[in-house]
């Protein structure tokens, strides 16, 4: 089996396209165009390969090359590689099909066998941990989950494979999903969150809320408090129907997602044009562009919107020309849900963060000397009718004082 980068284009190149790479995949040549689309060569160009043997259903390594006979300069390398993109598309499709099958026939099991989830008729919260370092606060989270007297949660971890991460024991054991490399201020964080959502949807149809967290997050309340807060929060106070209909068919409870959505921040214009002037058009107009915390709690309905989206993802995955204004993970989710279902979102997050004295775009990190009962009470307080449920960022050395007051302060509501 052999794959060669020797390629002859037998038709003239479109002016707006620069070939970035190709691979053998199911007997066809696939490539990524400058607009970020994954396309099959036979649908756009007639491509004749000189020394390429594409074996059906065999996937080969990714090759990059630039075409010198085009008027456009080659773009910066895409953070999302073609193999990763194709793998993600397959996962997202499986999640969408699994959700559709479950909504159509609630008694039908999920399409794929998974060892991660369990079968339980009550709705659950999926806790999605996105990390590139060890989960140093795992002991605190283990104590938090022990507060659930029934299996009302599932845990999923996306760990950057390029980092040497030691899986912690307890509820995190066996909960690591297939992961890809992540990079701050890049679309790779969006991809990682979408993988977590897809894995949770495939794994357990009873996952009703999806909470995205990081290794620097801690709980501010007991599990029972978090569970009751989320499931006692529908916009309509009518009797809640059976959960099987919750995220799929008609008659579902009118719950909302807890996601920060801001539309008047001074950084919006620069960030909107970070990929180039008007590049986001026509899919995303400037007046539709939003910003917010990347940490959210989504309903199943909105989680499905995210994994089914292709239109906005084609824009947000494009490389930025202005890296100083490039934070796609803070824009993709608020923009998508604001465009699709603004009234279905609270427009605020349940994860508290302190931006006072931020350094290099990072919020304040609480160290051990700062941890106290007074800090926990302060972090819980919010301007809405809901208490903050989680907080970040906490340093590794803060674990000891947090564990010391876990039972007497944090988990005593």
Architecture blueprint of SSEs:
Blueprint: E1 7-9, E2 21-25, E3 28-32, E4 38-40, H1 41-44, E5 47-49, E6 63-64, H2 82-104, E7 124-131, H3 138-145, E8 153-159, H4 188-203, E9 207-214, E10 218-219, H5 223-231, E11 257-260, H6 268-272, E12 297-299, H7 300-308, H8 311-316, H9 332-340, E13 345-347, E14 351-353, H10 373-380, E15 390-392, H11 399-404, H12 406-410
Parallel strand pairs: 7-8, 7-9, 11-13, 14-15
Antiparallel strand pairs: 1-5, 2-3, 2-6, 3-4, 9-12, 10-15
Subcellular location: Membrane
Pfam families: Branch
GO molecular function, one term: glycosyltransferase activity
Main traits of this protein?
glycoprotein; membrane; globular; 26% helix; disordered N terminus; 413 residues; 4-stranded antiparallel beta sheet; glycosyltransferase; Glyco_trans_14
């Amino acid at each position: 089996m052999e794959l060669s980068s020797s390629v002859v284009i037998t038709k003239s190149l479109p002016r707006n396209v620069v070939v970035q790479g190709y691979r053998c995949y199911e007997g066809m040549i696939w490539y990524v165009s400058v607009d970020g689309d994954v396309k099959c060569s036979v649908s756009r160009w007639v491509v004749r390969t000189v020394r390429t043997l594409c074996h059906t259903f065999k996937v080969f390594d990714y090759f990059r090359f630039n075409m010198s006979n085009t008027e456009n300069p080659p773009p910066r390398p895409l953070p999302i590689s073609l193999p990763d993109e194709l793998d993600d598309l397959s996962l997202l499709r499986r999640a969408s099909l699994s959700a559709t099958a479950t909504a159509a026939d609630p008694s039908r099991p999920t399409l794929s066998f998974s060892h991660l989830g369990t079968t339980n008729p009550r709705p659950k919260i999926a806790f999605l941990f996105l990390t590139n370092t060890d989960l140093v606060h795992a002991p605190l989270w283990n104590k938090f989950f022990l507060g659930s007297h029934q299996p009302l949660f599932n845990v999923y971890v996306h760990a950057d494979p390029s980092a040497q991460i030691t899986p912690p024991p307890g509820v995190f054991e066996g909960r690591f999903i297939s992961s890809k490399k992540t990079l701050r201020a890049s679309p790779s964080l969006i991809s990682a969150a979408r993988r977590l959502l897809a894995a949770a949807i495939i794994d357990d149809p009873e996952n009703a809320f999806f909470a995205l967290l990081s290794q620097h997050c801690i709980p501010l309340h007991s599990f029972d408090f978090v569970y009751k807060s989320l499931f006692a929060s529908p916009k309509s106070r009518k009797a809640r129907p059976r959960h099987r209909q919750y995220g799929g068919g008609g008659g579902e409870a009118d719950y909302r997602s807890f996601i920060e959505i801001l539309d008047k921040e001074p950084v919006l214009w620069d960030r909107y044009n970070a990929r180039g002037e008007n590049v986001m058009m026509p899919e995303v107009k400037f007046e539709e562009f939003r910003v917010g915390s990347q940490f959210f709690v989504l309903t199943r309905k909105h989680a499905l919107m995210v994994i089914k989206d292709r239109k906005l993802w084609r824009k947000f995955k494009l490389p930025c020309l202005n890296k100083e204004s490039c934070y796609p993970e803070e824009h993709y989710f608020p923009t998508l849900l604001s465009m699709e279902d603004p009234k279905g979102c609270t427009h605020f997050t349940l994860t508290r963060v302190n931006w006072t004295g931020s350094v290099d775009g990072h919020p304040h990190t609480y160290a051990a000397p700062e941890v106290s009962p007074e800090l926990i009470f302060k972090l819980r307080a919010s301007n809405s009718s809901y208490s903050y449920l989680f907080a970040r960022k906490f340093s590794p050395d803060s674990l000891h004082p947090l564990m010391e007051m876990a039972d007497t302060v944090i988990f005593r509501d």
